[in-house]
Design goal:
The protein has 436 residues and is mostly beta strands. It contains three helices and 34 strands.
Length: 436
């Protein structure tokens, strides 16, 4: 069941019902009670619960604890908790990011141990839409785009600074809070919080953001339809210089010829990878234009990544150049041009679980290429998984990279990057805290 089905519904209650614990006739010496929640809370807030596990037996136990929400009992977390013989243990960090409902909604939450169950009912109060002037693209336009189209959704820094932080949802499921150096750089330099999503499957989709603050939350919602006859993202038609390699100690003028068959062009954001900086933003006009920037050299192995964005915030990313020292193109195996896109992750996960990052590699060259693909995690980047992938000429390949997360006690957010050498894709992920 889609979690949105019960979190979008308009409930009538506005207060938390009394906490209830019931074993339902089960036997055993392990009991569970919910002792505290932070409900009622606003849509988009983090539901937090505290429970107590009691072991009335004479032996130490390791208890499997499941956290479920909704009438149809969707599991949103699981944990193994040690409880000593004759002891009662407090279990914190039982959390779930609620959906930014427009009307008040009431739903059950439950903890299960296999031999006992504790349940209560919580209420999430509805939140109002934020002012449309703070969100991009224009949410009044219900976009229809082609499969594999990437859209950048943005919230103006003025609203974020007033409200606090943003949380993003796709089709009712919580995805992420923006994290990592690229998100923070974009916020500081461009003045907008951003969330990037690639739409793979046809049909209707919802993208929501909750902007949360102590004095009240607001929200924004975009409706996107994916169809084969939808709008096409912008394209890069030519690059100058044509040579891929740039001198690291010389000033060079870079040019991109870009066009859009769908709408007017808006801008190009120029990045330098590894140093994680925006070199500049070039405004565009019309359905075709040339973006230009002058760079005064760069770091060895760094690449230039350009985001081409149209007025609907549809997005194309290219990495045509690298500063000398990387060594691409030295032989047939490393020739060609590969673009990487993160298609999705299994975030959020609980600390200690395996994080999976699904990516697509696209080879735009006329010959087969082989790349070593790396998964890099954290604000202090660490490579945690690598795989060699061969991509046929003009083709694509799917890859899943994995990372066993740390059993952190508190919730953690950090960036993950998939790198091929000439292309990088980044996304923020979320890890629920757990107890050791």
């Amino acid at each position: 069941m889609n979690r949105r089905q019960y979190l979008i519904g308009a409930g009538t209650g506005i207060s938390t019902l009394p906490l209830v614990s019931s074993s339902g006739g089960a036997t055993g010496h392990i009991s569970i009670d919910i002792v505290e929640t932070n409900a009622p809370l606003e849509g988009g807030d983090l539901l937090e619960m505290t429970a107590e596990l009691e072991n009335s037996g004479s032996a130490d136990e390791r208890v499997d604890l499941d956290f479920l929400i909704g009438e149809d009992a969707v599991m949103v977390g699981e944990r193994t908790v040690p409880v000593g013989a004759g002891e009662t243990r407090t279990v914190d960090f039982l959390q779930f990011r609620t959906y930014p409902v427009r009307g008040d909604d009431t739903f059950p939450v439950r903890l299960e141990t296999g031999v006992d169950t504790a349940e209560t009912t919580v209420t999430v109060t509805g939140v109002d839409p934020c002012d449309a002037q703070y969100t991009y693209p224009d949410r009044s336009q219900k976009l229809t785009v082609q499969p594999e189209t990437t859209i950048i959704f943005e919230v103006d820094a003025e609203l974020v600074q007033q409200q606090g932080s943003t949380h993003w949802y796709v089709d009712g499921d919580y995805v992420t809070t923006p994290a990592g150096p690229w998100s923070s750089t974009y916020f500081a330099d461009v003045g907008r919080e951003l969330f990037t999503h690639t739409f793979d499957s046809t049909g209707s989709h919802l993208v929501d953001t909750a902007v949360t603050a102590d004095d009240g939350n607001t929200a924004s919602r975009w409706e996107v339809t994916v169809a084969e006859d939808g709008l096409e993202p912008p394209t890069v038609d030519a690059t100058r210089p044509t040579s891929r390699e740039l001198a690291a100690d010389e000033t060079t003028t870079l040019e991109l010829d870009v066009s859009s068959a769908a709408t007017e062009l808006d801008r190009v954001v120029w990045w330098m990878s590894q140093s994680d900086v925006i070199l500049g933003v070039s405004d565009l006009t019309g359905s075709s234009d040339t973006a230009t920037i002058q760079v005064d050299g760069g770091c060895h192995t760094c690449q230039i990544e350009a985001w081409v964005i149209d007025e609907n915030n549809m997005h194309a990313s290219v990495s045509p150049w690298q500063f000398e020292g990387f060594g691409a193109g030295d032989d047939g195996e490393n020739g060609g041009s590969v673009t990487v896109r993160i298609q999705g992750t299994n975030s959020p996960v609980t600390g200690g679980e395996v994080l999976e990052v699904d990516a697509t590699l696209e080879n735009t060259d006329t010959s087969e290429v082989t790349r070593e693909v790396a998964l890099v995690v954290g604000n202090n980047p660490e490579t945690v998984d690598t795989q060699a992938m061969t991509v046929p000429a003009g083709g694509t390949e799917q890859i899943t990279l994995v990372f066993e997360t740390y059993p952190v006690k508190q919730d953690d957010e950090f960036p993950v990057r998939v790198e091929t050498g000439e292309s990088t894709a980044e996304r923020g992920v979320y890890v629920h805290g757990t107890e050791s």
